[in-house]
Amino acid sequence: MKKIAIIVAGGNGSRMNSVLPKQFLLLKGKPVLYFTLNIFLNSYPDLQIILVLPQEFLAEGQKLVVDYFEQGRIRIITGGDTRFHSVQNGLQLVKDESIVFVHDGVRCLLSAALIHRCYEATLEFGSAIPVIDSKDSVRIANGNASEATERSNIKLVQTPQTFHSKILLPAFNNIDYKSKFTDEATVVEAFGLKVNLVEGEEDNIKITNAIDLLIAEKILEGRSTEAKNS
Length: 230
Description:
The chain is of the alpha/beta class. The protein is built from 7 helices and 12 strands. The chain has helices spanning 32-43, 58-68, 83-91, 112-125, 165-174, 184-190, 210-229; strands spanning 2-8, 26-27, 30-31, 48-53, 74-78, 98-104, 127-133, 138-142, 145-149, 155-157, 161-164, 197-199. The strands form 3 sheets. Strands 1, 4, 5, 6, 7, 10, 11 and 12 form an 8-stranded mixed beta sheet that branches. Helix 1 crosses helix 4. The two termini are 34 Å apart.
């Protein structure tokens, strides 16, 4: 089965107080996006990437690809106004029956094992949504009131959200955008299909704020130490 990863990197630098989008900020001397692309390319030798970028940063994306990667495996396309529209743009390049991973460009610390787990689960069930348990107590807010809820029922959703193309393409092609579509799972569910959950990873954090870059550096340093000692 063909494998395609749509890497959505359409963010800007507003939360980082930076003119440079967070996907291009440096982590251990390389752009955050480098680590994301690298792990996907290394996970399967036949995997292709569709990189979705803001119009004004297409040149930076192309330079990154030229500097670090085999260009034939990465195609770049312009994003849309929302995540939904960016993914929709990326899906225009999916022409053959495939397993499609949709991943946040700034979730750069996922493992090949998670990518493999999502692929295998999608082959069996049609979809794979990685989630982790909440470690904190959680409450449901309703105006000024709130109510405690059992945290074992709460799952924190990650990416890569992975689907068979026969599921994902019709969902995005036949549903109009709604603000509640915060990820691909919500779109597929609105199309009338259920999604399958798989175990995510604690290290699969999303680089959103400056502190996240520091955490990511420590995680990479820990992995490097483990590799040297193994």
